[in-house]
Design a protein that fits this description.
Blueprint (H helix, E strand, L loop, with lengths): L1 E3 L4 E3 L11 H6 L4 E5 L5 E4 L1 H7 L3 H4 L4 H4 E3 L9 E8 L5 E13 L2 E10 L1 H21 L4 E7 L8 E2 L2 H6 L3 H5 L4 H5 L5 H13 L4 E8 L5 E12 L5 E10 L1 H15 L9 H18 L2 E9 L2 H8 L1 H16 L7 E6 L2 E9 L11 H18 L2 E3 L2 E3 L3 E8 L6 H18 L4 E3 L8 H16 L2 E10 L5 E11 L5 E2 L1 H11 L2 H21 L5 E5 L2 H4 L4 H12 L6 E6 H6 L1 H13 L3 E7 L6 H4 L6 E4 L1 H4 L6 H16 L3 E4 L5 H9 L4 E2 L8 E2 L3 H6 L2
């Protein structure tokens, strides 16, 4: 069959039979745009699809130059038998992207170009949309500080996708990771890989999302902690198909957590075990000694002249002395013994698994000989001067010794008797050591101090000083903490650290606390009458916290004094809160329900259970000064303080930094989101009469 292009009528060729077809109907039915042009470039035929695409009428298209209708980078006659990209220029002047196929056909009047056009605007729009979506996805995925990945559930198949951050985090290039079946397994810490993979298997078996933590190893060998958050993608049959997830580097957080856990059982300044760990190890040593009929020694060391260092050279020098002393004490004991810091300038030494009974060379028991030999080594270690920033300082220490089973059979008794012997050694002379004997516990000095303390309680020889609490960002004073002082008849002021522990032991603390609450209420009412709006805080000791009907007594005093409970902060130490957490929670909840604000004091120095802490109705978390000191210089302190600030905020508490001594410490705390602070730099404790003048200067 041949077609007369000019007329558009088909005719049956020789031997073709009687079939007659309308050529225009046939060509208009094709889904492609079809244009036929003569050798001079004039359009001699266009089907209906061309009209729809171009907007020209069919009559307008006839004799229309084809190169004005179809625009391409090459001449159409040179592009036969190929597919090129170009544009179709519409009647209204707009252009439509098209795919062009050019062919040739022989007609009755010579050679013709047959041009088919396919509108690809929708395809290009889809491709542009896909590109934009991919660009947005890459910008999102590759912009976060984490590895994003898509893996098959079959560990033996190649990873499908991993973001470029894999190089930053693990030192391996993206293409290397994707070309290695076992890249993930090779970079998981050997001790963690089986557990991590088992977590994945359990997650896709149980159709659950997964968040787990494990260690990975960088190409250079250093270890990082990661949090891997993944979910399972299922196929159309509901079967596990892919694992898609994000891996975050949590090394800094883990280090902070490990530091917090370490400090629960260790002293931050010296790195030595603290009293909590000492008592646990002492209990274990006693159990072992009972089974094997051995002895255990407890040595209690207290420096004789430590206060002189702090007063004359400053706290930094005192800290340096304690660190150096800790190192020397380690050298005085066996590897199986334990050296701990009790607090302040007091240290404890645990001598475990000592031989018990008469010595082979002397009439003195073997355990006494062993303990005394350690005490002698301690005294010799103290004979060398301490270098405190160029100043040579000679220190002496008094040592008290108690032994199991002769001086006690439980940790409390042994430590108490070692303490008693230490005080006896102090009376003997600087640098002495004393083995406990009955009667040491009745120390003359302590008896005299006790008599004076009882007289002070009877006469109410107390005075309150107030230390300002400051908004660190604005510098505004928002509150004040009440600190009790013992006003002795000779005019001297005794700080609370020197008499509160004994008052607790003697049962006098409730009387002192009752006076403090009464005077605080009186002072708050007086300030409010003067237009001074401050929150005032006071400390509760453990004995006070657990005294009968404490909430009623506190609220009664506030009501009688006309003081709003919401302007009062009740503070308890971290160790007090954790001593009996259930009981503490009941009491604090009752006080909180009446509007009193609650604060945990000295946070970081005790041993808090975070699961317990989050349930306490606490408003303020006070970060201990030992962490705040030099926080702008000490990386460990900085990490700890950041972790504590985050912890407080995550638990809905307001962090407050104690012991601030420099402007740089203030700036660090502000930058890291700590709103409140107190310390000598912001304001020393002062009599109530000085507070109005202090406020006027802010």
């Amino acid at each position: 069959m041949s077609i007369d292009v000019g007329r558009g009528h088909p005719t049956a060729g020789p031997g073709r039979g009687p079939l007659e077809i309308d050529a225009r109907r046939l060509l208009d039915a094709t889904p492609e745009c079809l244009v036929v042009a003569a050798t001079d470039g004039r359009v001699v035929y266009a089907n209906e699809r061309v009209r729809d695409l171009s907007g020209f009428g069919l009559n307008e298209l006839i004799d229309h130059p084809v190169d004005e209708l179809v625009i391409a980078d090459v001449t159409l006659s040179d592009a036969t038998a190929s597919i090129i990209e170009g544009l179709c220029r519409r009647k209204d002047g707009t252009e439509v992207p098209v795919e062009i196929h050019v062919g040739e056909v022989e007609g009755s009047e010579g050679r013709y170009l047959v041009v088919t056009l396919r509108d690809v605007s929708a395809v290009q729009a889809l491709e542009a949309s896909r590109f934009q979506t991919a660009a947005k996805y890459e910008a999102l995925v590759e912009g976060i500080p984490a590895i994003t990945y898509i893996d098959p559930v079959d560990e033996n198949e190649f990873s499908i996708y991993v973001s470029p951050q894999v190089h930053d985090m693990l030192g391996i290039k993206q293409e290397q990771w994707l070309s290695d079946h076992y890249a993930w397994r090779k970079h998981v810490h050997p001790d963690d890989v089986d557990k991590a993979w088992a977590d994945y298997v359990e997650a896709y078996t149980n159709r659950e999302s997964l968040t787990h933590e494990y260690r990975m190893v960088h190409e250079d060998g250093h270890v990082i902690w990661v949090s891997d958050q993944a979910f399972i993608v299922r196929n159309e049959n509901g079967e596990p198909w892919l694992i898609q997830g994000v891996i975050f580097d949590i090394t800094e957080r883990k280090n902070a957590e490990e530091q917090v856990a370490f400090l629960a059982y260790h002293d931050k300044l010296t790195g030595l075990p603290n009293r909590v760990l000492f008592e646990e190890m002492l209990e274990a040593s006693l159990a072992r000694a009972r089974r094997h009929e051995l002895a255990v020694g407890v040595l209690y060391l207290d420096l004789d002249n430590f206060k002189l260092v702090n007063d004359s050279l400053g706290h930094h020098a005192g800290d340096a002395l304690l660190r150096q002393l800790a190192e020397r004490l380690r050298g005085c004991t066996r590897e199986t013994d334990l050296v701990a810091r009790q607090g302040g300038d007091e240290f404890l030494l645990l001598l475990a698994d000592l031989e018990r009974g008469p010595s082979a060379t002397t009439e003195i028991d073997a355990e006494v000989v062993a303990a005394e030999s350690v005490a002698v080594r301690v005294r010799e270690a103290l004979q060398r001067p301490f270098d405190l920033d160029g100043t040579l300082f000679y220190a002496t220490g008094s040592v008290g010794i108690s032994l199991f089973p002769r001086d006690g059979t439980d940790p409390t008794t042994l430590m108490m008797n070692a303490d008693a012997a230490m005080y006896q050694a102090k009376r003997t002379g600087p640098g002495s050591y004393v083995v406990f004997t009955r009667g040491d516990e009745d120390r003359v000095g302590k008896l005299s101090f006790t008599t004076r303390l009882r007289r002070a309680v009877e006469h109410e020889d107390w005075v309150l000083h107030f230390q300002p609490v400051v908004d660190l960002r604005s510098g505004k004073v928002t509150g004040a903490e009440a600190l009790v002082r013992w006003h002795e008849p000779n005019g001297g002021l005794v700080p609370p650290g020197e008499f509160i522990p004994l008052a607790e032991e003697l049962g006098l603390i409730e009387a002192i606390g009752d006076w403090v609450m009464g005077d605080l209420v009186r002072q708050q009412a007086e300030w409010q009458s003067q237009g001074i709006e401050l929150t005032v805080g006071f400390n509760l000791s453990p004995r006070e916290l657990w005294s009968t009907r404490l909430p009623e007594r506190v609220l009664g005093k506030l009501k009688r004094g006309g003081v709003d409970p919401t302007t009062v902060v009740v503070e308890i130490t971290e160790s007090t809160a954790m001593a009996d957490p259930d009981r503490t929670q009941r009491i604090l909840s009752e006080m909180h329900a009446w509007g009193l604000k609650l604060a945990i004091d000295d946070f970081g120095t005790g041993y808090s259970s975070l699961s317990r802490l989050k349930h306490l109705p606490v408003d303020i978390l006070k970060i201990d000064r030992s962490f705040v000191s030099r926080v702008d210089e000490d990386i460990d302190n900085a990490n700890m303080v950041r972790a504590m600030i985050d912890l407080a905020q995550n638990l809905g508490m307001t962090p407050l930094a104690e012991g601030i001594e420099t402007q740089r410490e203030v700036e660090f705390l502000v930058e890291n989101g700590c709103p409140l602070g107190q310390g000598f730099y912001l304001g020393r404790p002062m009599p109530a009469s000085e507070i109005p003048r202090f406020l006027a200067t802010r």
